[in-house]
Amino acid sequence: MEPWVPDSRLDRVLAGRADVPAVAAWWADPTSRVFGVDDQSFVTATDGELRSERPRGGYVPERHLLVGLVDQAAWFVAEASDLSGQGETASLRELATGLDETMADVVTTGVALVNWHRVAPHCGQCGAITQVREGGHQRWCPVCERPRFPRTDPAVIVAVLDADDRLLLAHQRVWDTGRVSILAGFVEAGESLEQAVHREIAEESDLTLTSLAYVGSQPWPFPRSLMLGFVARAQGTEITVDGEEIEWARFFSREELAAAVAAGEVKLPASVSIASRIIAEWRAGRLA
Ligand SMILES: [Zn+2]
């Protein structure tokens, strides 16, 4: 799989966002926009499209988070309840298909920022109330005199191939009938990504991996994951699932998967997910 670099024009203005008067001037600028994120990570929308508005009132660093600049225009994010427009919201998944890569970057970053500030008012070390810095990309503990950064939870997601290049797909018990994806799981404390891949695959399928390569990543701010994608080769094809989280798993050839999808027997992940992208790369013969 070719390394994938999003074609995003979002400028996170690392040099300018620490300057509070400059961020306040962006907030007041008539070209600036603000959108909202609610406590379910849903984004303000109208008829399934991102809804933003011109910022109003004075700039409040605690509430008005600077995502960055797009073509010189500033984009802010706030709690959805702070926006003037009424009601409607949509999930990032619903919105993403209608957004270009720049705006997908803006909205994903906005969701991640709002989710972080909602749970991070206190210093994780001493418990003091922290202050927003860097336009919302940091918080500062006045007691520890240290910056606090947004937390991200790494998770690995793995395309496991057998010797015949068949792909392992699994069905979780909590999913709709027929829905499948590649295996994934969170990285544990003190673990490397590679260790997490070997452990997860062993736990969920009892397969041993003989090779492993990184293919790409995707922020998944629900509430704060970063999905790290790998492709791995399995030794053998004997699968044992736990039967609790994973109900069944099996290897599919490309032809078998195409037939199962056409017959409605299996449903693949939504097109905005890294799982969907990795599966599509494999189906196209580009995942080695
Ligand atoms: Zn502290």
Q: What secondary-structure arrangement, pairings included, does this model have?
A:
Blueprint (H helix, E strand, L loop, with lengths): L19 H9 L4 E5 L5 E4 L2 E2 L14 E6 L2 E7 L9 E2 L1 H5 L4 H19 L11 E3 L4 E4 L4 E3 L4 E9 L5 E6 L10 E4 L6 H13 L2 E13 L4 E11 L10 E7 L1 H9 L11 H10 L5
Parallel strand pairs: 1-5, 10-14
Antiparallel strand pairs: 2-3, 2-6, 4-5, 7-8, 8-9, 10-12, 11-15, 13-14
The structure holds zinc ion (ZN).
Short précis:
This protein is 23% helix and 30% strand. It is an alpha+beta fold and 288 residues long.
Written description of the protein model:
The protein has 288 residues and is α+β, with helices and mostly antiparallel strands. It folds into 2 domains: 20-120, Nucleoside Triphosphate Pyrophosphohydrolase (Alpha-Beta Complex); 153-283, Alpha-Beta Complex (Nucleoside Triphosphate Pyrophosphohydrolase). It has 6 helices and 15 strands. The radius of gyration is 21 Å and the shape is elongated. Bound molecules: zinc ion (ZN). Zinc ion binds next to loops.
The helicity comes to 10-25%
User: In CATH terms, what is the fold-level topology of the largest domain?
Assistant: Nucleoside Triphosphate Pyrophosphohydrolase
Overall, the morphology is: elongated
Continuous helix count: 6
Mean residue pLDDT: 94
CATH 4th-level superfamily of the largest domain: Nucleoside Triphosphate Pyrophosphohydrolase
Structural domain count: 2
Using the CA coordinates, give the radius of gyration: 21 Å
CATH class of the largest domain: Alpha Beta
Q: Class by helix and strand content?
A: alpha+beta
